[in-house]
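Data card: per-record layout.
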Amino acid sequence: LFKDFATLPIIKGGSTSDVNEQSSTITTSAVRCSPNPASDNVVVTFTADGSPCKLSLFDHTGREVSVLVESTIAAGDHEVRFDASALSSGNYYWRLQTLRIQQTSPMIVVR
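The structure for this 111-residue chain is written out next.
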């Protein structure tokens, strides 16, 4: 941003990043849902890397609403079905966590 921008003394050992930098290991979204916006049944597609994996759904306040997957699964693309009929209208977020990936994807529920 600024060539002569001074590093703050409270940040030690950190490094800067550029918004244009991209991870070479993930070329597409690791978690996505369809349909979105959703009303009832949702198909969540995600890419696992063979390490322990957790796929969770959070509401707009950050509260974990559901855990769909919490185990070590084979590397590759997977899909699970989720019944969203008990959810209120609003914004929700899928979070995929593995040893190498942490990615969040939005989902909107409409009634």
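Known properties of this structure: Confidence is low (pLDDT under 50) at residues 22-27. The chain is about 0% helix and 50% strand.

See the next section for split statistics.
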